[in-house]
Amino acid sequence: MEFDPCTRLARYIMNFRESIKNLKILDSSVSKVISLAMNYLDDSNYYLEKGDCTTGLITISYAEGLLDALKSINAIEISWEKKTETIVFAAGSFDIIHPGHIEFLRWAASLGDKLVVVVSRDKNYRYFKGYDPVFSENERLKIVESIKYVYRAILGSDKDLFEVVKSVKPSVIALGYDQPSQDLILNELKARGLEHVRIVRMPERVGGYSSSSIKSRICKEWCKNL
Hints:
Elements: H1 5-20, E1 24-25, H2 31-50, H3 53-72, E2 76-77, E3 87-92, H4 99-109, E4 114-119, H5 122-129, H6 137-145, E5 152-155, H7 163-168, E6 172-175, H8 182-191, E7 198-201, H9 211-222
Parallel strand pairs: 3-4, 3-6, 4-5, 6-7
Antiparallel strand pairs: 1-2
């Protein structure tokens, strides 16, 4: 998933502000050009607040271009900083996507920069639910990866449920309201040397949705007419 213009602009401004903290002026005659670059930075922040983020991306690139030009002629010293991306990990079956799923993924994506979603394998689904999913693992994967909040969707392991966590190396694990105990997950992470991972649970269920109740409703309302 590509970031929308406003998310990109906010990150761009943040990185720019971090970078100019180490700015050193080697030639005082370029101070007016530096001031112009700072004006472009202010403009970018203004456009971000107004929601005109495409224009804001243009003005922030002007600001960076001016400082890069000064750097190339040795008039200033600057090192462009890039904030380490925060990877958020979420997992689930996602069989019959409903508004609760969408809100969970939107919330999970807000916890970091990129949301990686693990979709359960058919084998694991059958083991935990006792019956087959409506959609196969590859169908569920395709549906989840098309949701705009998801940076990447992958299938889980059918052997070790935590194997994929070690592969993704997230900074945050986002849990749904009714997903497994945090203590259980923390113990498993510790056993795999992943103590640094932060676990955040969604504070409440959204709208009382569940795939199981939707399936029951479909059978109740529609199967009798078949």
